[in-house]
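Let's do one together. I've listed all components of the complex below, 488 residues spread over two lines.
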Amino acid sequence: MKKPFWEVISTLDKRWIFLSVFIVITLPILFPINLPLKASEPVKKFYENIESLPEGSLVMISDDYDPGSKAELYPMTESVMYHIFKKKLRVVIVSLYASSPPMTERALNVMRTLFPNIKEGVDYVNLGYKDGREATIVEMGRALQKAFPTDFRGNPVGNIPIMKGVENYNSFKALISISVGYPGTKEYVQYAQGRFNINLLTGAAAVSVPEYSAYYNAGQIKGMLTGITGAGEYEDLIGRRALAAKATDALSFGHVFIIFLILIGNVAWFTQRHKGASHE
Amino acid sequence: MKRTVPIAILFISGLFMIVQYLVPHYRVNDAAGVIQQWAIIITAAATVLGVANLIRVSLDQALTKKQDWMYKWVILVALVVTAVSGIFWGVEPGTFCNDMIYFNFYTPMASTMYASLAFFIASAAFRAFRVRSWQAWLLALTAVIVMLGRVPFGRLLWGDFPSLVDWIMNVPNTVAQRAILIGAAMGAVSTGLKMIFGIERSWLGGSE
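Okay, and this is what the predicted structure of the assembly comes out as:
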């Protein structure tokens, strides 16, 4: 006997759901439709903050994520670097995650092809990873060159031109924490932002945005890229739609599909429950 | 003695780190810097200890063929190959450790683990998220608004979706987050003081 429609739905094998999710996410990536992007307030503030820095200013990026969150946060690293080099700023990059520096190097490699004139050690330096978490964050505020005595390639920082005169956070016009969790933006706020009066910006994984919103609303974070959507909006502002903008299409469809699943799952449940009650 | 000395060290260094925050003298600042350096070194040493422990536990389980022993060999081989290639041939772009292990093995595996969440969330949304009470209705409604308002598709449906999401994030969310953060901070202060004054001693190990 043929099963009623809602009974089929309520007992649907989860592998059909997995297949549907795969199709819904993959199609917009393969065939982007470029949905219009409009920057939200935290993204605008992030953009305007970097835009307001004078040429030649020194900024710090703290790349604090692992390859698991590469899809969400690597596009931010690329976009932020693009904006920095387009504005002719200089950048020192550090990492509190052991697995982050290779992704930083990859982003720098992309930048070298886009901006052939930038020079390692003059316009940028990757200081690599340092263990110590909160202790490293505080130590950078005291004496950065003691916390990072060499760069990613093992060159003493004292010999690197961009590091001349750099003592601590006061040497930087902004600190951009691209962060997936611990240690990251939250620790920079708690251990360094207020104490060293840092102009702190963050690129945050979407899951951290509700927590960081409290810091943003308190003015401790001056601008925020909110997950992959925020990264896409930022790409639109800097005039380089790349990885994040493409992913935003897929995310749109993914969200709509999950809402559809919640709806249809509940209708099926309600129908079956109602049917069960009427049979009793 | 085994307990008194660690408690005394914690008392002195803990109290000093509180005092140095309030005394902006260069000698105090220098001394605090030395302690910060020690903290960084001890954290790095703990990583070495972690690796040694991982080898000991995994090797024991692999050799005695305990449950899932074959996976312990995978851990050990991966650990040795990664460490040896990184230590002897470097970790810069172009090296085996960077190009092969990091980008061809580690990155896709880590991304796959994280991406698989999307499938489980979708399945859970369909099979487990039931609006049985008014609280569940509230949660479902908020989730739908935030999910739509956070993506460009939502703006196409209704131009004010993002504003509604901003209100949810800036008012109810911020209020709740601040309560959690302040509560957690007060708990951390309380625990810190209990440890400094030797009231909380579970960090020493043992049953006390």
